[in-house]
Amino acid sequence: MSKVELNKEAGPREVFCGLTSIVWLHRRMPDAFFLVVGSRTCAHLIQSAAGVMIFAEPRFGTAILEEKDLAGLADAHEELDRVVDDLISRRPEIKTLFLVGSCPSEVIKLDLSTVAEKLNKRFLGQVRFVNYSGSGIETTFTQGEDGALKALIPLMESSDDEKLLLVGTLANNVEDRFKKIFNNIGIINVESFPPRQSTELPKIGKNTKVLLTQPYLSDTVRDLKHRGCEIIHAPFPLGVEGSTKWFLAAADAFKINELKVHEVIAPLANRARQAIEKHTEILRGKKLFLLPESQLEISLARFLHNECEMDLIEVGTPYLNKDLMEEELNLLPENTKIVEGQHVEKQLDRVRSSNPDLVVCGMGLANPLEAEGINTKWSIEMVFSPIHGIDQAADLAGLFSKPLKRNQILTSKTLLAPH
Amino acid sequence: MELTLWTYEGPPHVGAMRVASSMKDIHYVLHAPQGDTYADLLFTMIERRGQRPPVTYTTFQARDLGGDTAELVKKNISEAVERFKPKTLLVGESCTAELIQDQPGALAKGMGINIPIVNLELPAYSKKENWGASETFYQLIRTLLKDKVNAIEKINPQRWKSLGRRPKVNILGPTLLGFRCRDDVIEIQRILSEQGIDTNVVAPLGSGPDDIKRLTDADMNVCLYKEIAETSCEWLKRNCGMEYTTTIPIGIENTINFINEVHEKLDLSLTNKEELAHKSKLPWYSKSVDSNYLTGKRVFIFGDGTHAIAAAQIAKDELGFEVVGLGTYSREMARQVRAAAKDLNLEALITNSYLEVEDAMKKASPELVLGTQMERHSAKRLGIPCSVISTPMHVQDVPARYSPQMGWEGANVIFDDWVHPLMMGLEEHLIDMFKHDFEFVDGHQSHLGHTATRSLEHKETEQKENNINSNKKTGVIWTESGRAELTKVPFFVRGKVKSNTEKYALSKGLPEISDETLYDAKAFFG
Lengths: 419, 526
What we know:
The complex is a heterodimer. Chain A is α/β, with parallel strands linked by helices. Chain A has helices at residues 22-28, 40-50, 67-71, 73-90, 103-107, 112-122, 143-152, 172-185, 218-226, 239-253, 258-283, 297-306, 322-331, 344-354, 363-371, 380-384, 393-416; strands at residues 5-9, 32-38, 60-64, 96-101, 128-133, 163-167, 190-193, 208-212, 230-231, 287-290, 311-317, 337-341, 358-361, 376-378.
């Protein structure tokens, strides 16, 4: 392993909780509904993060706990039944209903798995119920997806067919692109999890080779392993380097000669490198500080250093799973400072004193840092934009060059303006 | 348990954050898990604030629950006090912390910190954002002034005369994430200063604990938003006799009433009464012949209590609209909204469900909707013009330009904001009328605002037209002549005309609707 500097920090944090994952999960599976069992805070969080108003009726909602629900758990279970009945009669097209635990439901120990079990019996053949926790006391932002996927694994049938299973939500166009490239490489049977329809879950077994598309799926990986799946170890498909190694690792698992991979990928990689170059011109030698949020920080740091020639000041990550991140850590330059966890005030002190050219951070911090004259890039955009794969590598670089370019344009105009 | 897909108000601690973030020299330690920090983005993104809200989240995790979360609270309090050096500390909890009962306020008070500490108990499972803001403002005032109010004499609003100075007032209620508060304050201060009245303190927006302590220097209070400041104004009245205004100066009539009320309470003579009627362009714009087409327009209104009531009055008395629906999500103001609706022969809609509001909107078939951003979206789906009059805030509701709702300029802004979508609506109507002319370019859109809605709207129109032949529910059949006549009716009233005609046919026992039936029904309903 390359010698990165691993630090831990604790204190007040500035991150989303796992409920936020619903924002992209519900889009991936249009036949599923996500029902948070929580408080008005949960409802407000999701609607603030998701721009809910654009939907006539969103496919996610909150069963808001009221005082009487806190008094007795038996009543709370009954109340939840009533809410679910109401919901299903409103939305008969729903095939899978995720009951999502929250901080308050976890603290009062509302047993959503028992509720889900009972509902499964009652709505047999009509709607399937699964449950997981997206609570902030247990999960950070993208970790919610880990919980949702893990909850689906028991519903997946067994099959010993050999297949490549891509695990982690991808934009549909990126997924199609990956499948085509894998086919060209010679891996024909490629499936995705989560699927585009919640009812079309892939079958898994001892000949399923799992390739992760996202770095935040520790629990899902563990359960897939228990079902006999083989886990392919690779860096994540961000940038040309990460994506190439990712394809190579898959090919290796299917005993396909690496020359074949290079033959397929080389033209794409060359094209992408050229496209990245115009962003590298802006990013080269610029100092980057990543605050923890999406869990993509380590992969992004690797890409922005190795392919866009940025200097890394500090790479924050909400938590570190060394097993899953080993390949990524090996690709980072020596002595990269990685900080797991957060004390937001102390970290901001370090941001200010290190004078970075660009800070990757959450939306709560972006404008205040801009007001201090520090360029920022919101991390939430990484989970909503198609950034995976070789073909998207230049777009990914563009997300970081844009704020710097914008700043140049605005500054020069301000200087030209008469006072 | 309440199924909520979208909510007009956040939890009460967000209300507390609105007060804290509006002020200086204040810090709020919030006992809350990670994730609750989402609320910061309401201020930094929607209000485009260049400062973080002055809030420290204790960020407790599941593994802390077995251990000592109280220690965690104390650690965060001492770090926050040390780092931010506030003059007053607010301490409270969000929904989850309320369940674990660490009582952070009591803990803070036991720490020997030598600044005032306000212990905020905001029940997260029964109350909402505006209540939280109101309670926080009230507790803050109470904490900082409770000793002083006992020591001073009752405040007579006319005391300025004997003190040999101009009268001065406090302006209470404006906060961040309140609808156009930033500009309302400027407008009201301008109006008061024209009348020779000084502003003592504006709070919470822009004030600090030192300012709160000198609230009692004023002769009376202006209560700008009842949702936020009424409780505080009432406490100041009860404890030191300070009078406060009850008129909300939105619209010409109420701006004049407000000025009168202030003068009466201060016993200050109003010398420029004649001038007041000409301060805003609204009365003349409304009277000018061009506004003939505004008369009798059907308006549906939904918003917070203050803005919904004001909108209803302006719509009816100052623009000559017909109010066909009035409601609010502010349960605290349900009584006042019900009374206002009763005056208009309506039944008020008091709800927190936007779907109920959308249904009511559909049934009322208005020509203009005045609502929140959510009603703007609902109205868009129904193809009805809409103007936004109330929170919850959206980045669009914090315009770069000066854009108050209150006072003279507020009335100007309201005229433009309400009438422009209607003009666009009229343009759409013209397009609809002339769309078969050869000069007409297919797909022409009069303005950007309707680009997204037109295809949907047309789909709906088509659908309606397809359904014209018969109505499954009523069983009434539309003849060819009836159908042809119905398509000539402007699209925005077609639905209403169709249902009225069917209702009429049913009541008369007619099996078919011809063009004549349509005209009979038109005459019948008037």
